[in-house]
Write a structure and sequence with these properties.
The complex is a heterodimer of chains A (137) and B (384).
Chain A: E1 17-22, E2 27-29, E3 44-49, E4 51-60, E5 72-79, E6 85-90, E7 103-113, E8 119-127
Chain B: E1 6-17, H1 24-39, E2 48-52, H2 56-60, H3 66-72, E3 80-83, H4 89-102, E4 108-115, H5 132-135, H6 140-155, H7 159-173, H8 187-192, E5 195-197, E6 200-201, E7 210-218, H9 220-226, E8 230-239, H10 252-265, E9 274-276, H11 282-291, H12 300-305, H13 322-326, H14 333-345, E10 359-369, E11 372-382
Parallel strand pairs in B: 2-3, 2-4, 9-10
Antiparallel strand pairs in B: 1-7, 1-8, 4-7, 5-6, 8-11, 10-11
Helix pairs in contact in B: 1-3, 4-14, 7-11
Classes of the chains: A mainly beta (137), B alpha/beta (384).
Chain lengths: 137, 384
């Protein structure tokens, strides 16, 4: 999955998905196609999002492919930064927290294997940490 | 209808099931043979052939096999075109056959399709490993699990309403000797079956199958001479628009195809007597009702709950038992769905016959891309 997310180490910037941007049409794409679909002009590689909310999701409980854990969660996330709806994996450790509307942020970690069977990095979304209750401080 | 541009005059199919001893070609050959015999034509009359299949290349390394199939029944020399269009491969073959005849380029065209899926270690059906979505874990049941959850969130549909689609179609399948699973099931059994992709349980996901079907399509003039013709009032194919944002709670591409098909046929959804729609998952049938104009958006669950779409209801849907009972031999399903409407319109459906059925619709869809479907075909058939 080369070129679809920023690579570690992450210092100041959180991990982000990389997509395309057409400055003429003001259009964002993920993943980045070869040309802008509206004007066929060139696209700039750009960060399309690090945070968002869940539009829908499911938990797949059978025949996990590509070394993914069983069960595993996938869904569509609405990216806060660009408004794109994108398909993604969810954090395997937080499947019980998934619900429509849940705020999530991107993580990149070793998850499953690539098509050659080697462990590989995958982007996935994980629930935003819950803000501590200001009243208790 | 007098102005139909082509007609179906022959139908052949084999029962859907687990045919471990049979090859894709073997199954297809029998279906084509039966269709030719059913039509009462000779192989030498066939001007062109289309053959739909999806998985033979991936599973068996067998490509361009339509030529093998048609030569087994003595057809050579004429154009043979292999068609791959995901789960609409079979119906795309029909679409192409229709268009070739409507264009006046042929008088008799065969559309056939076959699929073999029962092999060891087959995974869930996906869009191929060159797709990012597949690498991120997208497989067919996941797509429809996400749709179901979004649909339920937006319209308040219940798990029971979803389950009722499976209950209805299994009830119909009792009367279809060609269906793979013919035992009736209850709502409780559907919901208690193992979860595949939340909220879809196993009995809400169509099983795989081996199967094949073929039809003989011909010009209206020849159809008149052969008899038992089923007119093709319209057949359309729509491709997804892949808009972002996608709409997971509605089949906008199916709706677009339906508008076009109704317009071409000069009829509306209220005129139909019988329908086969693409019930690969329970949620798809409910969303299809809405996209095909059988009820307002958000009311699909209620439509099945009130019994309007069962045999004996206002508009029987998937009287064959649907993909949920027949199984889904992906490349062959489109023609198997059409086969049910052809059988119904001929008045040959036995115990599951919809009385007086003269106008039917068959809707088939396939593939997933960017939260949309890759292809949707709709055909409107008649015997009036």
């Amino acid at each position: 999955m080369p070129g679809i997310f920023t690579l570690p180490p992450y210092d100041d910037e959180p991990p982000a998905l990389l997509g395309g941007f057409c400055p003429v049409c003001n259009a964002y794409y993920f993943p980045r196609p070869k040309y802008c679909r509206a004007c066929l002009g060139p696209l700039k590689e750009t960060r399309v999002g690090s945070e968002g909310s869940i539009y829908s999701f499911t938990i797949v409980r059978k025949k996990a492919p590509l070394g993914l854990p069983q069960p595993y969660g996938v869904g569509y996330v609405i990216l806060k930064e660009t408004g794109l709806f994108i398909f993604s994996l969810f954090d395997p450790a937080t499947l019980d927290k998934l619900r429509i509307g849940l705020p999530v942020r991107l993580a990149v970690n070793t998850l499953g294997v690539d098509i050659n069977g080697s462990p590989c990095l995958r982007p996935y979304f994980t629930p935003m940490p819950v803000m501590s209750d200001p009243g208790k401080i | 209808m007098a102005n139909a541009l082509a007609a179906i005059v022959g139908l052949g199919m084999i029962p859907c099931g687990k045919h471990l001893e049979r090859s894709v070609i073997d199954m297809a050959t029998e279906a084509v043979y039966l269709a030719i015999k059913d039509a009462g034509i000779k192989p030498g009359q066939v001007d062109a052939c289309f053959f739909g299949n999806v998985l033979a290349g991936r599973l068996f390394g067998a490509n361009t096999i339509g030529q093998n199939v048609f030569w087994e029944v003595g057809i050579n020399r004429v154009p043979v075109i292999n068609v791959e269009n995901a789960c609409t491969s079979g119906s795309t073959a029909l679409y192409l056959a229709y268009n070739m005849i409507a264009a006046g380029q042929a008088e008799v065209v065969l559309a056939a399709s076959s699929e073999k899926m029962y092999v060891k270690n087959a995974g869930l059906v996906d869009a191929g490993l060159d797709e990012l979505d597949t690498l991120l874990g997208l497989a067919a049941p996941a797509t429809f699990g996400m749709r179901a959850r979004r649909y339920m969130e937006e319209f308040g549909a219940t798990e029971k309403q979803l389950a009722l689609v499976a209950v209805k179609n299994r009830c119909h399948a009792q009367f279809n000797p060609l269906a793979q699973f013919r035992e009736p099931v209850t709502v409780e059994e559907v919901l208690a079956s193992p979860m595949v992709a939340d909220p879809l349980t196993r009995l809400q996901c169509c099983p795989i199958a081996d199967g094949a079907a073929a039809v003989v399509v011909c010009s209206p003039a020849l159809a008149k001479r052969l008899g038992r013709a089923v007119n093709i009032e319209a057949t359309v194919l729509a491709t997804g628009d892949y808009a972002n944002p996608p709409n997971l709670a509605g089949f906008d591409t199916v709706r677009r195809a339906a508008h076009l098909a109704y317009e071409k046929a000069g009829i509306g959804p209220g005129d139909l007597h019988v329908v086969e729609c693409h019930d690969a998952f329970t949620i798809t049938e409910i969303m299809d009702y809405e996209a095909l104009g059988f009820c307002p958006v958000g009311q699909g669950g209620k439509l099945v709950e009130e019994g309007h779409t069962k045999l004996g209801g206002r508009l029987p849907v998937n009287v064959s038992g649907g993909l949920l009972s027949r199984g889904h031999p992906v490349g062959a399903s489109g023609l198997l769905q059409a086969a049910e409407i052809i059988t119904q319109l001929r008045g040959e459906a036995g115990e599951r016959q919809v009385r007086g059925a003269k106008l039917g619709l068959v809707q088939n869809m396939g593939g997933d891309k960017d939260g949309d479907i890759r292809a949707c075909t709709i055909s409107i058939l008649s015997t009036w």
